[in-house]
Every structure is written in structure tokens, then in C-alpha cells.
Amino acid sequence: MLEAQVIDLVRRGLRDEALVSILRAYKRKVFGLALSYLRNREAAEDVAQEVFIKIWRALPRFDGRATISTWIYTITRNTSFSAIRAQRPSSSLSDPDVLAAVEMSETGTVEAAAEMDGAALLRLVDQLPAKQRQVVMLFYMQEQSHEEVAQMLAMPIGTVKTLLHRARARLEAAAGRAPNRELQ
Fold first, then answer.
1. Both ends of the chain: CA-CA distance in Å?
2. Which one of 36, 68, 86 terminates a domain?
3. SS3 96
């Protein structure tokens, strides 16, 4: 439905109106996907803005062969990867986040489990493998459905569910806790 509307608007020379429709439908999802890759709110906002500029420029070439969501998520994924490549500074122990991660891994997670708060949980999520981290961020932090996460990351729903299951197990083990039913 949105695809037909966008194609019709573009054909009529109403590219700005087409972008408004896309923004309404995908603003939050594009930001969530960028955030899952970049793990930095400001960088994700910049990428999301760049994505919508790229979409606006490319709208005349959108022909509907792929779904609009697949097309948008591909642009988002590629733009996020470009941003990651552009900002690859080397980590240093003078960086407070790196130092905290090192200290946490040195002291173990038993102490962290005793006082698990949001920041500690995010540090544990940050230590997950990239794909597990992405699905956790999208599913729990951005409150996307299994289907939306699968579509955003271009993977089968079963893979998303498996990655979530493995991530929960890793988080529970890292926190030194019994399984937390809240995460399921």
C-alpha cells in the first residue's frame, strides 16, 4: 500500500510528499536500526538523517521491485556500515567506557549481578556478539516485533528468535543469575 502511494507520488512529481509518507512510517525504525549498529545515539541520529536524504535523492529510481521496507533498511544498513568505517578510532584505556568494560571483565560479573541496573545491563548487552546485540537492542530497547527485527536485519524470523534465545542465555550467565523471565 505504501509502495503504491510512494510510486504514485513520485510519478506525479511530488517527491517531498512521498518522503513525508516514508518518514511517518519509518523514522523510528530507521533510527532503531542505525542505533543497533552504531550503539551511539548521536551517530544514529546523524545516520538516520543521512538515510532520509539518500532516500529523497533515490526516490525517482524506486521502482517497487523490492518492498519499500527492504529498500529503506538496505540503505540504512549500508549507511550505518559506512559511518562505522569512518569513525573507527582505536580504543584506549583512557576511554572511560573501555576502562569500565575492562574493569568489569577483570572483577567478574558476580558483583555486577548483585546490583544489576540499566547501565550494567547495557554494558553486558554491549559485550554480546554483534548480531545478538542488534536483535536485543531492536527487540527489547526499540520494542520491535520478531517480524520487524527480521525484516530490518534481513534475516529469517527463526534466526531472530534463536539469536534472542542465545543472547538471553549469555546475559543470564554473565550476570550470574537464574534465568530472568522478564527478558522473554
1. 33
2. 86
3. helix
